[in-house]
C-alpha cells in the first residue's frame, strides 16, 4: 500500500480520538490509495507520498496532546498490521525510486515515528519475551557438568497459600579449584535466601534471572549450598513440579519439572542421594509420601505432623516424587529371592481401593518375573503406587513411588474388559521395570531417552507375553507400530529414534522415541 498507507492505517488504528471530518478525509484518501496502489505512474506516487508526509506531521502534532497518551499502547494486532504494510513497502521500493531525496528523508522520519509508537514496550515485556524465547538444544553440544551433587536434603512445609522448600546440597567441583560459575535452573520460584558453607549471600553475590540462579564465586573444593524458596502449588496449572489438585499435593518432574520446586542442576547426569522431610496439616494431609524408605514420622504442635524419607541410591532429580493428601491403601508383601520382605502399598482415594486388586496382582507378578528372567531383585524395603485422577503424565516411574492416572490402575470385574486388564498388567510392569532400566541405570542426557524407554518397553512386552499369549501380544504390538509409528515416520513429523536436537523437551515423547526399538521391530 506504500508509505502513505502505512502512516494512515497506523493513525486510523490508533486510540487517538478523531473528528468526523478527519475520519471522512482519511477514508477518502484510503479509497484513492486502493484505486492507484497498482499504478506505476510517478505523478500518482509523488502525490501518494506527499499525502503520507502531511498526514504524519499532522498526527505527530496531535499525539503530543495529553489526551493522546494512550495511543502509545498499540495492540499486537496493530503492530502486525503495520509490519505487513512495511513488507509491502519493501517490495514497492524495489520497483521505483523516490522523485526527490527530501521526500525520502521525510518518509524515513515518519516511518521511524510510527514504528516507535507501534512497538514501544515496557522493560518487563522485553524481559518476558527473552525468557520465553525457545532455545534449540543440540546433541553435539553436550559437555560434562562443572559441578556434581553428592547429597540433597529437602524439607517441605506444605501450606494452603504457599509452600516453603528448604534444600541443602553437598556440591563437588568436577575439577578441584574450578573457576566456573554454578548455574542452577529455576522457574516460577521466589528466592528467599542462599547460603554457601552456612554463610548467607548478599544480592550482589549471585545473579538471579527468570530461569536461572548463577553463583559466580565459589569455594575451590567441596562445599554445602543451602537455598530457601517459596512456591505456590495451588496456582501451578502446568501440572509440572509440585502442584495441588483435588485437595492432594502431587509432583511430576520428568522431564524438567524439578526446576519448579527449587533451584537445581535439572539434568539427568546430576545424581545425588536424597532425603526428604515433609510437614503438613494432619487433618488435611494424613498421608505424606516420598522416595525411598520411611525412616521417621510423628506429630507436631498445631495439628501438624511430619515424615522423613530416605533414598540410599543416587538418582537424577526427574525421579523425585512427593504426594500428600487424603488417601487409603491396599497393603501386601513380597518376599524377594534373597529372603527380604518388601511392603507393597497402592494408594488411592478411599472409594477406589476395592478396584486395585488386579493392580496388586500385576505388581507382584512383575517383581517375580524380573527376578526369574533378568535376575533383578527389588532393592528397597517399601514400594508405593499412587493412583489419582488428576495425574497428567499417565504413569511415572519415580523411584519407589510410582504415580499413575487412576484409569491405568483401577479395574472391577463388573465393568473392565480383557483389554483393560491386559493394559493394567503391562503399564504396572513397565513402570516397575524402570527401577533398574531407567532409575538405577539412567540417562546421560535426554537424547538417550529412547534407551531407557525402548529397553523398558521391550521388557514389559516380554512380561505381558509370558503372562498371557505371546502371539496375541505380538500382533497387538505390531499393530500399534503400523497404526501410529509408521504414519509418523512417513509424514512431516518424521525424526530419528535419537534426534539430533530439540527445542522443548515435552515434544521428545513421541511414538518413535518412546516405543520404537530394535527388539519390538525385529
TrEMBL record:
<comment type="similarity">
    <text>Belongs to the peptidase M1 family.</text>
</comment>
<protein>
    <recommendedName>
        <fullName>Puromycin-sensitive aminopeptidase</fullName>
    </recommendedName>
</protein>
<keyword id="KW-0378">Hydrolase</keyword>
<feature type="domain" description="Aminopeptidase N-like N-terminal">
    <location>
        <begin position="212"/>
        <end position="319"/>
    </location>
</feature>
<dbReference type="InterPro" id="IPR045357">
    <property type="entry name" value="Aminopeptidase_N-like_N"/>
</dbReference>
<dbReference type="Pfam" id="PF01433">
    <property type="entry name" value="Peptidase_M1"/>
</dbReference>
<dbReference type="Pfam" id="PF17900">
    <property type="entry name" value="Peptidase_M1_N"/>
</dbReference>
<dbReference type="InterPro" id="IPR001930">
    <property type="entry name" value="Peptidase_M1"/>
</dbReference>
<keyword id="KW-0479">Metal-binding</keyword>
<keyword id="KW-0482">Metalloprotease</keyword>
<keyword id="KW-0645">Protease</keyword>
<dbReference type="InterPro" id="IPR042097">
    <property type="entry name" value="Aminopeptidase_N-like_N_sf"/>
</dbReference>
<dbReference type="InterPro" id="IPR027268">
    <property type="entry name" value="Peptidase_M4/M1_CTD_sf"/>
</dbReference>
<dbReference type="InterPro" id="IPR012779">
    <property type="entry name" value="Peptidase_M1_pepN"/>
</dbReference>
<feature type="domain" description="Peptidase M1 membrane alanine aminopeptidase">
    <location>
        <begin position="360"/>
        <end position="512"/>
    </location>
</feature>
<keyword id="KW-0862">Zinc</keyword>
<dbReference type="InterPro" id="IPR014782">
    <property type="entry name" value="Peptidase_M1_dom"/>
</dbReference>
